[in-house]
Amino acid sequence: MTLCATGDLVDEARGAGRAVVAFNVITLEHVEAVVAGLEQAALPGIVQVSENAVRFRQGAVLPLARAAAACAEASGARLALHLDHVTDPGLLRQAREAGFSSVMFDAGAAPYQENVRATREAADWAHGQGLWVEAELGYVGGKPDAPASAHEEGVRTDPEEAAAYVAATEVDALAVAVGSSHAMTERTASLDHDLVRALARRLDVPLVLHGSSGVPDDELRRAVEAGMTKVNIGTALNLAFTGEVRDHLGQHPDVSDPRKYLRDARDAMASAVAQLAAVVSAPTRA
Ligand code: G3H
Ligand code: ZN
Fold it and tell me: Among the listed ranges 23-32, 105-114, 248-257, which one has the minimum average pLDDT value?
């Protein structure tokens, strides 16, 4: 199927009172699992490549991006490609050529005025390329530059400041800090649903939840009901992948062919994708 544009999938989800799920990929097996899981669930979704994943590939974005595009185009699922957590303007400038329809420009670690300046510059350039732009205001925890806790004073996104930020930067969607934290390996996060509702009421643009792996199913449903429209998930796939590999190697210490354990790892990720996509994509808002 032809690739979809992220902005179209997000608008469609918003209109239907639900969210669209976005999965971060690192290996080809992640990509295949996202495609297989979304086909199994018969749901649309977004395949995301983060700047960190590009760094893991020695700075080369094209190998994983082209693989993701090829898998998505061959799939029966409706899929879009998104370049995630970009801080490097050089990487941003490769987004279009690499096949992404959207980018998240991440100046979330910078002071407010610097975040606005850098994001506005990035958004102006990206919009000129026809890209949909997401940015972050507030600190979603769990990144090296973020405060230790998602519950620290001043970490959450303030609705009035967010409205001014969106007006000043002209971004198309806003990642907000409402209690989730990146890279959680236990699903124990509790979100500030009143804040999600206040942000959704105050802002014209869709809201994005980062660090969703640590958010239990019911909290995810409540967040979508309160107004989250794009839900980003990464670590949950890595837990499924690595858990299977660890089990397989524990049971078969002499194995050498990686296909023996990568097959199980890919299947485990595909099941996680189908399950999480169903939770996030269920209509909850009127
Ligand atoms: O942008 C990516 C997400 O925020 C993923 O976060 O790995 O904690 O699920 P996660
Ligand atoms: Zn994130």
Answer: 105-114
124 given a catalytic annotation = no
Are the C-beta atoms of 206 and 166 separated by less than 8 Å?
A: no
Specify whether the CB–CB gap between 14 and 251 falls below 8 A: no
Tokens standing for 111? 């002071």
More confident residue, 162 or 154: 162
Residue whose CB lies within 8 A of the most ligand 1 atoms, among 210, 238, 239, for a mutation test? 210
What was the pLDDT predicted at 144?
63
Cα(257) to ligand 2 centroid in Å equals 33
256 CA → ligand 2 middle, Å = 34
Q: What's residue 142's pLDDT?
A: 79
CA atoms within 13 A on the CB side of 166: 20
Answer yes or no: is the C-beta of 141 below 6 A from any ligand 1 atom.
no
- Given this model, what pLDDT does residue 42 score? 97
CA gap 148, 141 in Å, rounded: 7
Q: What is the mean pLDDT of residues 235-258?
A: 98
Tell whether the model's pLDDT for residue 241 goes beyond 80: yes
Q: What are phi and psi of 145, to 5 degrees?
A: -95, 0
Q: Is the CB of 82 under 6 A from ligand 1?
A: no
Quick check: CB of 233 below 6 Å from ligand 1?
yes
Write out the DSSP string of 46-94.
EEEEEHHHHHHTTT--HHHHHHHHHHHHTSSS-EEEEEEEE--HHHHTT
pLDDT for the residue numbered 151: 57
